[in-house]
């Protein structure tokens, strides 16, 4: 009985998001590949709708920055494209950041591994209260 329990625990997989193609116009040229992925401890899932988005490297235009993995609820009628790097035959390295996309491939205003993004708060002046 214990052997069966251990075997089923080893074969369990994390719920992953629905995936789809990366549009060619999502690719940007980067000067060098990202570092190796980091090891992450996966916390318990908060609800049955959440899927796991792995941690990933993100190119900020200057350096690679790590984004931690997270549980997230997929946006309705959307698919996920994990980050992708492709070496061209001429040696150029192209990168597409991870994104939630509408069925037509258009990126949604949702960060990978996070819920749909809220608008950023506007900048405040000294002493001014900012409404969110």
Mean pLDDT: 81
Q: How is the largest sheet built, in terms of strand order?
A: 1-8-7
Q: What is the helix/strand order?
A: HEEEEEEEEE
Helix content bin: under 10%
Q: Could you give a short account of the major beta sheet?
A: 3 strands, antiparallel
- Identify low-pLDDT runs: 1-11, 115-132
Number of strands: 9
Number of domain modules: 1
**Dominant shape:** globular
Helix/strand/pairing category: mainly beta
Instruction: Compute the CA-based radius of gyration.
Output: 18 Å
How many DSSP H or I helices?
1
The first-to-last residue Cα distance is 54 Å
Estimated share of beta-strand residues: 25-35%
Give an overview of the whole structure.
The chain has 132 residues and is mainly β. It has one domain (14-36, 47-117). It has one helix at 2-11, and strands at residues 28-30, 51-53, 56-59, 64-67, 70-72, 78-81, 84-87, 93-96, 99-102. It is globular, with a radius of gyration of 18 Å. It starts with a helix and ends in a 30-residue tail after the last strand. Residues 1-11 and 115-132 have low confidence and may be disordered.
Task: Give the tags.
single chain; 1 helix; two-stranded antiparallel ribbon; mainly beta; 132 residues; three-stranded antiparallel beta sheet
Summarize the structure.
The chain is mainly beta and 132 residues long. It contains 1 helix and 9 strands; from the N terminus they run αβββββββββ.
